[in-house]
Amino acid sequence: MPKMFLIDYVGALLKGIQQLVPAITALATIWLGWRFCTFTLWPALHPQRPKPLPYLVPVLTHVFGMSKNAAALYTRGREYFGNTREIFSVTVMGEVLYIVTSPSDVQALYKEPKLSFEAVIAAVMADFGCSPDTVEKMFNKEGKLKTWMDVSHDDFRYQMHPGKEFAKLNEAFLINIEFSLKWDKITGFPVTNRASTGKLLTVSLWKWCYTVLVDAATRSMFGNAIFEVYPDVMENFYMFDQEGWKLPFKYPEFAAKTLYRTLGRSKTAFADFLALPEDQRQDSCWIVKRLEDGMKDVGIIDPAQCGVMLFVLHRL
């Protein structure tokens, strides 16, 4: 009896599978046609356009790769196209991102007069928490030769290109790297194990290098005062850096709690930094002082809004 039941069960199962074969064949044909048209035919017909990085499922696109490790996804794309540094595209939740990894292409993009970054910058600032009124003031050109944003770009180039202010910043950066490499400064979240004798540490090399560079850059830009109001800046920045890609995709708060928690903490901290007396912030670099003065000039005085803008500078 059990043997007969098993035979009947297997027979019914095979019959069910046979009935599904036409549907499976149709789906496979549609999928192969979609993949051929999207990743082979379309790029061949439009050789001047960036090639799309292939993905398996149309709706899901590169969501999982982006959520797991965005940098690894970009690296995989670069290597998929032979590491030629050509521009390629990545699709995430219906949005097409163009990935530029060649220094010459980046330079050409910034010099292209037909390209306007205003809409992108405005969207980014809004994502970080700038109000419509603040964004309007950034790009308002009434009675001026340049907008606040244009002046800020000029100031940023002046700060980061060879010259007096860059030399000061570079010197401070190198000094702070040396400071961060001292034994007693190797603390916090990069440390995974510390021997009871205090003479042996186990650290995450990735997190340690990350902390050393970000700590040095933060102290060089904002001075030591930022650490007085924001002692957990390194760990917070690291967590936001891992989650920040979700911001332009408008993830709801319940699906990105770490993102919004670290963003809120950072904005508050930079507002607190600006609330400190100026004599306590004298070691901040030239561009920070210029941005603060520029915000006052255009009427951006809300501490929360100013905090957002300094946090964006920190992200840069």
UniProtKB/TrEMBL annotation:
Cited InterPro entries: CYP450_sterol_14alpha_dmase, Cyt_P450_sf
Gene3D superfamilies in alphabetical order: Cytochrome P450
Keywords assigned by UniProt, alphabetized: Heme, Iron, Metal-binding
Annotated signal sequence range: none
Top-level taxon of origin: Eukaryota
GO function term, MF aspect, one: oxidoreductase activity, acting on paired donors, with incorporation or reduction of molecular oxygen
Keyword Iron assigned: yes
Homology family: Belongs to the cytochrome P450 family.
Entries under PANTHER family matching the protein: 24-HYDROXYCHOLESTEROL 7-ALPHA-HYDROXYLASE, CYTOCHROME P450 FAMILY 7
Identification of the protein by name: Cytochrome P450
Organism placement in taxonomy: Eukaryota, Fungi, Dikarya, Ascomycota, Pezizomycotina
